[in-house]
Structures are given as C-alpha cells and as structure tokens.
Design goal:
This protein has about 260 residues and is mainly alpha-helical. The protein is built from six helices and four strands.
Length: about 260
C-alpha cells in the first residue's frame, strides 16, 4: 500500500494564510454592518419609550379633563343649591333660619369659586401637557422615520452580504478540515486574543504585519525557508514570508471574485 504523502510545512503555511484571508474577509463584511444593528436596537428602544411616554401624557390629559367635568358638575349642583336656598329664604320663619340659609349659600358660592380656580389650574396643566405631547409626537415621528431608514439600510447590507458571508463561512470550515487540529486550535486562540483578528501575518519591512518590532535577519531567513512554523515573540502571531502572502492573496482574490 502506498504511503500517504505528508503535507509540507509550506503547504500548511499556505493553508493557514488562506484561512486567515477568508476569515478576514468575513470580518470585513461584518464590519460593514458596524454599529448598525446596535443603532437599530437603540432606536427601537427609544421609539418604545417615547410611545409609552406619549400614552401616559395622553392619559394624564384625559384625567384632567375628567376632573374638569367633575368640577363643572359640582358648580352646577352648587348653583342649583344656591337657587334653592334663595327661594327658601323667602319663606323663613325667623332670623336663625335665614342666617343658616345665608351661610349655606355662601358656602356653595365658595365651592363655585374654588371649582373655577381648580378648572383654571387644570386647563393650564392641560395646555402645558399638550405642548409636551406635541413635542413628543414630533420627536416620535422623527425617530420612527430614522428607524425606518436605518432598518432599510441594515436590511440592504444584510441582503447584499448574506450569500457571500455564508459561502465564506463554509469555505473557512472546509479550510480548517485541511489543516491539522493543533494548528487550527492555535490559530483560533491567537485570533481570539488579538483585536484585528489577524492570527497569520506576513513579514513586512523586517517586522511582522501590523507590528513595530523588528524581526532579526536570521529569523526572517528561517521564515522565508518555509521549513517550520514560526511565531512572533511579541504578538504570538504565525509568520509567513511576504512572497508567500502575495501569492496566496492573488489566489484567494480569484476565489472571492467568483462568489
């Protein structure tokens, strides 16, 4: 039986760099969405909050209008009692009854005055609340329009990138299957520990990609020989030579163009 051909270190490096290019493209697609999902969520929360506030304001105006009705009814009852007491005063038998009816009349008159004062206060509150309601309605309308625009923007981006992202994720998984598990684990660990998600980088101008730390010439030669997997001592990233990186980028750009 023929012995299974062993994968060279160079091919492992190429596969790892291909995986990095695929995952970086997915990162780019997701960064296009950026803060949009969060913006949409924030706007939805704000719209819900404004809607609730508007409902409470409207309810409070309704309550004030009910109180005005009650005060008006009280005034009508007081006027009816004043009329009644005035008629009764014409038929009193003594001063005590007359004075008693006079006090009742004065009391009802005070009730009317107090009700009128309350109504003025309620009307002033309603006027103020109506101003606030108009402002809230305007703000709610603006936020709803803004939310509609942001949702449309997000949906457009999602539709434009959904297919490509799904294909790339499948390619990423397929690519991982072609790389030995320990390297995939190392790659994933490094990728999760760096902000830009770059676990495999090329040596550029004597330093690892995105780093200002110079790599010794001897190490650069070893990287270029592609005989073993070398990591950057500062960032832990897996290093590949610039020529290999260029070749894989050209190859993967052709793959991406077909998606």
């Amino acid at each position: 039986m023929a012995k299974k051909k062993e994968i060279t270190v160079e091919n492992k490096l190429r596969a790892l760099y291909d995986l990095q290019l695929i995952d970086s493209r997915v990162d780019t697609i997701r960064s296009v969405r950026g803060e949009l999902p969060l913006e949409v969520q924030d706007l939805e929360d704000e719209v819900a909050g404004l809607t609730t506030r508007l409902e409470k304001l409207t309810d409070s105006v309704d309550t004030l209008n009910d109180q005005i009705k009650m005060k008006k009814n009280l005034m009508e009852e007081a006027k009816a009692l004043i009329k009644k007491y005035t008629e009764q005063q014409k038929n009193v038998r003594n001063n005590r009854e007359f004075n008693s009816l006079t006090k009742e009349t004065e009391f009802q008159d005070l009730e009317i005055q107090l009700a009128e004062k309350n109504i003025k206060e309620f009307l002033a509150k309603i006027e103020h609340k109506n101003v606030v309601i108009d402002e809230a309605k305007l703000k709610l309308s603006e936020r709803k329009n803004h939310l509609k625009h942001k949702k449309s923007e997000l949906n457009t981006i999602l539709e434009e990138t959904k297919k490509e992202e799904e294909v790339l994720l499948l390619k990423s998984e397929k690519c991982k299957k072609d790389i030995e598990e320990r390297l995939v684990l190392a790659y994933s660990r490094i990728r999760n520990n760096v902000k830009n998600g770059l676990a495999v980088v090329a040596v550029e101008r004597g330093a690892s990609g995105g780093s200002y730390f110079t790599i010794p010439p001897q190490i650069i030669m070893e990287i270029g020989s592609r005989k073993k997997i070398i990591t950057d001592e500062h960032s832990g990233r897996i290093l590949v030579d610039e020529e290999l990186a260029k070749e894989q980028k050209v190859k993967m750009e052709k793959v991406f163009a077909k998606i």
